[in-house]
TrEMBL record:
This is Bzip transcription factor. CDD domains: bZIP. Residues 71-85 have a biased composition (Basic and acidic residues). Residues 49-85 are annotated as: Disordered. InterPro entries: bZIP_sf. It comes from the Eukaryota. GO terms for molecular function: DNA-binding transcription factor activity. SUPFAM superfamilies: Leucine zipper domain. It comes from Phytophthora megakarya.
Length: 325
């Protein structure tokens, strides 16, 4: 190819530009190189490492990649059930431990309270049977104050300090195996006090006189005033209620006896003997006799009726109430 530049003055020689004709093979050999460069550039843009960890550019921004759902296989479900069961077991064990701890702490509080009152009453009652008997009648003049959680409160009212002091006084002033009637032990003695206080109404225990005998024995005379209630008929004279439903003269007689006894006031004379242990300085034996026949005779005015009432009564000759085990 020739190219001439115009020169009006003719100073320059003509310029000849020659272009070499390229072969077809040379032209086509450059195509793979260009294709490789394009592919390399595409990989560089698509690779996250090439852009410093940035996510790859999506060729089509409108396309949304579907999320992978976790399959709930049988093994997975079984593992979940096992984990839940272990969690519930740990929770139940934790609650059980807390309940046992609460019970233990309550027992400790009760023991410490008893120990405290034992020390307090021990100072006043040890080596002195006279003060022990006087304190006994003072604390129990309204009976045993049963907690409301066990039964209804007694009809008579008592000062609030007695509610706390009674059991502690008994454990402090009596031996653990104290004997009374056919029973022994402070717990059994307290149980009898609870029965008397709940089965009868308007309980009042009044000390009349005291006399100290040789060999460490104190005899106390007292009056026990009781009111016959429906609870008395159910728990002390249950045979009158069961037989009163019978047809005939016996049923009518028992019904009349219940009507006569209900609400009546019995003033029973009592004599108590306190056996004192000089070694432990506590009461080791307590014997009580109570005359319940005379006030019953005054109410029913018939000796045969009194005998019928006491025949199957749940009260022993030593004045213990209820079934003895």
């Amino acid at each position: 190819m020739r190219s001439e530049q115009s020169d009006p003055e003719g100073k320059f020689a003509p310029l000849h530009v020659v272009a070499r004709k390229r072969k077809a093979s040379e032209f086509y050999d450059t195509q793979p190189t260009i294709a490789c460069q394009i592919a390399t550039t595409h990989n560089y843009v698509a690779s996250p490492s090439a852009v410093g960890g940035m996510p790859p550019r999506m060729a089509n921004p409108t396309a949304i990649k579907p999320k992978r759902k976790r399959e709930n296989t049988d093994r997975r479900r079984e593992q979940c059930r096992h984990n839940q069961a272990r969690y519930r077991d740990r929770q139940r064990e934790f609650i059980r431990d807390l309940e046992e701890r609460v019970i233990y702490l309550r027992d400790e509080v009760d023991k410490l309270a008893v120990k405290r009152y034992t020390l307090c009453y021990g100072i006043q009652t040890k080596s002195n049977v006279w003060n022990t008997v006087v304190e006994y009648f003072r604390l129990f003049r309204y009976g045993y104050i049963v907690p409301m959680s066990e039964t209804k409160p007694p009809t008579s009212t008592a000062p609030l300090p007695y509610l706390v002091d009674q059991e502690c006084f008994l454990r402090a002033s009596m031996t653990s195996d104290v004997m009374f009637g056919e029973l022994s032990g402070v717990d059994a003695f307290i149980q009898q006090w609870k029965r008397y206080s709940t089965y009868f109404g308007s309980f009042h225990f009044h000390l009349v006189r005291m006399e100290e005998l040789p060999c460490g024995v104190m005899v106390a005379s007292a009056t026990l005033s009781l009111t016959i209630t429906e609870s008395t008929l159910r728990n002390v004279f249950p045979h009158l209620l069961t037989d009163s439903s019978a047809i005939g003269d016996s049923g009518t007689e028992n019904f009349l006896l219940c009507s006569q006894l209900l609400g009546q006031r019995l003033d029973c004379k009592c004599s108590m003997r306190f056996g004192w242990d000089d070694l432990s300085k506590r009461v080791e034996r307590l014997d009580c006799t109570m005359d319940i026949l005379t006030p019953l005779l005054g109410v029913l005015d018939n000796l045969q009726h009194v005998a019928h009432v006491l025949e199957k009564a749940l009260i022993t000759p030593s004045n213990l109430i209820g079934e003895l085990r």
